[in-house]
Amino acid sequence: MTYVEGFVLPVPAQNKDEFYRHAELVGTFLREFGVRRQVEAWADDLPDGKVTDFRKSVQAQEGEEVVFAWFEYPDRAARDAANARMMSDKAMAEHGPTAPFDGKRMIMGGFESIVDEGSEPGGYTDGFILPVPEGNREAYRETAQKAAAVFRDYGATRVVEAWGDDVQDGKVTDFNRAVQAQDGEKVVFSWIEWPSKEARDQAWAKVMEDPRMKHDPANNPFDGKRMFWGGFQPVLDTARG
């Protein structure tokens, strides 16, 4: 199964082109270090949440947008080896200080995929972050697996659910704080890829009416009030060239 390094970060809207150039440059190193796929997706449809949301997760300021991004590896060993190389590579170190965003408010972590359906890259992404009690891992996986089948039936090209494996505390913010994780909870980093935003919008209307998505809220394996989600437009996807 795929191992994911997931990121959420704030970027000044005026730096969008500079961010793309930076991500593309960093990507040349990432591929050498073993990253199979790099995706950088720019906020397009971010609803405000009552408890938390994407903007709150990175303390986004006025004039900043949110980027949802991930690197894919074959396993954690490959990811750890790549990170070790990144930390020691002089060329990578030279580009870090010039990043067109506030790295102190970027959140990141390693996640082990527990659902990975489909293989085609999409043109639009729905991203999700949520807390799940560790004891509910299998119940969550079963629920997510069933939902993935529905999304795929309505046109999703890929559905990934990745379980927190190496999610560390940050100095300013982090994934745990983003979902107000409680003791015994893990963070899930998840996404759905669609051919386009239009396909996504049409599909969601049908997904919400599909009887397979009906469930008893009392049996939900996670706290939906602390889950947040949003739609993102990929600006860089190495799987698409």
Main attributes?
241 residues; alpha+beta; eight-stranded antiparallel barrel
How would you describe this protein?
The structure is a single chain. The relative contact order is 0.23. The protein is globular and about 55 Å long. Strands 1-3-2-8-5-7-6-4 form an 8-stranded antiparallel barrel, surrounded by 4 helices. The chain is 30% helix and 33% strand. The two termini are 23 Å apart. It contains 7 helices and 8 strands. The protein has helices spanning 16-33, 54-57, 76-88, 90-95, 137-153, 175-178, 197-207; strands spanning 3-12, 37-45, 64-73, 107-117, 124-133, 158-166, 185-194, 228-237. It has 241 residues and is an alpha+beta fold. The mean pLDDT is 95.
Strand content: 25-35%
Largest sheet, in brief, is: 8 strands, antiparallel, barrel
Total DSSP E strands: 8
Multimerization state: single chain
